[in-house]
Amino acid sequence: MKRLLICEDEASIRSFVVINLKRAGYDMIEAGSGEEAIQLYEEALESKEGKVDIALLDVMLPGINGFEVCKQLRSHDETMGIIMLTARSQDAEKVEGLKTGADDYVTKPFSPTELVARVNALYRRINAIENKESMQYMEELVSGDFTLNIRSRTLKKNGEQIDLTQLEFQILEYFFTNPDKIFSRADILKRVWGGDFYGDDKIVDVNIRRLRMKLEEDPSDPKHICTVWGKGYQWQK
Which domains does the chain have, with CATH numbers? Predict the structure, then answer.
């Protein structure tokens, strides 16, 4: 069963989400606060049903907010899917969610069709990653000081491990297998998020900035993930 955790303090919205995602085939865990979401997530890990595949987190919550819940969930699981629910369409809030480790965001009010489409697309990406891990293929990709281990899905720089989200890993894998090639935002979006992605393509830029913060000596003057103005991004050793 596909398991999804919904954290939303407004009961009417939570009920609306639960009904529509249950119809789409998801097993739902409901929480009305950030503290309850973390507790239920930990209980789910210990249960026989196992891990949560995707979390839907409202940004504005009583107690700890959705950003903090996102950080805590991401610290436990780098591969689970996380979607932020926000009542505002401000770019700053969207960027903040992605910086804390979210994979996507949905702005309220949203239609059931849009929500289910976004959740399904994220679940397919997660499932594809898990299936790929069970296959036999090249163990490591080396580029300069960096070593990307495909099987363990880890990155090391000069032997020191750098933590990555699943999307960050996929972007680097794309770069490492195509060194010096220039990729447009659309290229990266299609490869990593899929052709059926339902959202803002600026999500690519946010993840690039986040990767630069982790990989570059000076993120404001990147030497590895370079911008080719008017064309896109290029990985250089």
Answer: 2-132 (3.40.50.2300), 136-235 (1.10.10.10)
Q: Residues near 77 by Cβ (< 8 Å), separated by ≥ 6?
A: 51, 52
CB 49 within 8 A of CB 20: no
Task: Kindly report, residue by residue over 102-137, the tens digit of the pLDDT.
Answer: 888 888 888 888 899 889 888 887 776 665 554 444
CA separation for the pair 168, 113 (Å, rounded): 27
For 22-47, the DSSP string reads HHTTEEEEEESSHHHHHHHHHHHHHS
* CB neighbours of residue 54 within 10 Å: 23
pTM for the structure as a whole: 0.64
CA distance 11 to 157: 46
Strands 232-235 and 182-183, how do they pair?
antiparallel
Q: What sign does the dihedral 204-38-59-112 (CA atoms) show?
A: positive
